[in-house]
Write a structure and sequence with these properties.
It is a single chain. By secondary structure, the chain is mainly alpha-helical. The chain has five helices and two strands, in the order H-H-E-E-H-H-H. The protein has a domain of about 35 residues. Helix 1 runs antiparallel to helix 3. It is globular and about 50 Å long. The model has no long low-confidence stretch (mean pLDDT about 90).
Length: about 90
Amino acid sequence: MHHTPPPPPISPALTAELRYLHQVMQAIEILAEQPTLCVVAYGKIWRYPDLLSTSLRYAYLAQLHGFDVSPFKQWFNKDSALFAQHGLSWNFG
């Protein structure tokens, strides 16, 4: 019988980053509906391209932690040209 080794442990730093990005995404989610706005949060001015790049990192970290990211992948596939316009791609399986 073939045994698949367990995934490597996730570092506390990656878990902390996922928690932080969760908070950021809650603060900037308005940009998904109003992409011309700017949001000031966590000491930074966030714009629509920031929402896109942050969502990619957030989905990657969530996937590492075992969360289902299929809704994100569906959004990404639907709007892949928009992500590509900002130089972003999904390279995480």
